[in-house]
From TrEMBL, chains A, B:
PANTHER family: REGULATORY PROTEIN ARSR (PTHR33154:SF15), TRANSCRIPTIONAL REGULATOR, ARSR FAMILY (PTHR33154). It comes from Mucilaginibacter conchicola. Residues 8-103 form the HTH arsR-type domain. One of its GO terms (molecular function) is DNA binding. SUPFAM superfamilies: Winged helix' DNA-binding domain (SSF46785). Coiled coil: none annotated. This is ArsR family transcriptional regulator. The keyword DNA-binding applies.
Length: 110, 110
DNA sequence: ATATTCAATCGCAATATTGCGATTGAATAA
DNA sequence: TTATTCAATCGCAATATTGCGATTGAATAT
């Protein structure tokens, strides 16, 4: 490859990139929306709602969890997933910062 | 691979995923921040600011442009890049919708 | 004409990702 | 015990991505 040169970027830029990468897949967006709607889900619920195989959903859940965006707690036989409130809020704030830092100097942008 | 099953997701989910994917790289976050700060940049400016090769910057600019997040206008010898205001606003709104749709039912999330 | 100076594209090697079937593991049910 | 039912992991084939050197192309200098 060309390994991404993380060392030349700030921690914030690297963290933000990792979390956005985790969200940047339609299946994971759908999973997050379903988790928000239902408040909490086990893997099987999501397999039922979306049209993907159990192994695939499980992989996506793992990636979202690795990025810290969701949490999973064992609930009897199942693992119950839900949004990780702190990370969610942090990401929301950081994105808000990025997006609102742009004030269109309208007509003469270029 | 397993080709992403775009057909089972909504257009909004697919569009959002594509645009987030474009942002989900520290170099591209840095490029966007620099474009916002400077209002507009040519490729060479960014090569100077970030520590990446010209070819690499050019690739990243292309991806951001493909995603519709930036626009490039020819300015004499150079191409001048800046944020595409409409897409930027749209993405901001969609992200805001996604993030604010979550109201933490706090303690008993899982 | 030749050199310079940009941005864009090509080509490539080194991974990373995606989706899924198959397997494993853990917990309960019969 | 044996069967069932979950989630997680492994392994794999088919791409996709990343970074960069090298090349190309276009525009201006000398």
């Amino acid at each position: 490859m060309g390994i991404t040169k993380t060392e030349i970027f700030t921690d914030e830029q690297n963290r933000l990139a990792i979390q956005l990468k985790a969200i940047a897949h339609p299946a994971r967006i759908a999973i997050l929306q379903e988790l928000i709607k239902a408040n909490a889900c086990v893997c099987g619920d999501l397999v039922g709602e979306l049209g993907l195989a159990q192994a695939t959903i499980s992989q996506h859940l793992k990636e979202l969890k690795n990025a810290g965006l969701i949490q999973g707690t064992i609930e009897g036989v199942n693992v119950c997933y839900c949004i990780e409130p702190t990370a969610w809020k942090n990401l929301q704030d950081e994105l808000n910062g990025l997006f609102s830092s742009y004030q269109c100097g309208n007509q003469n942008c270029c």
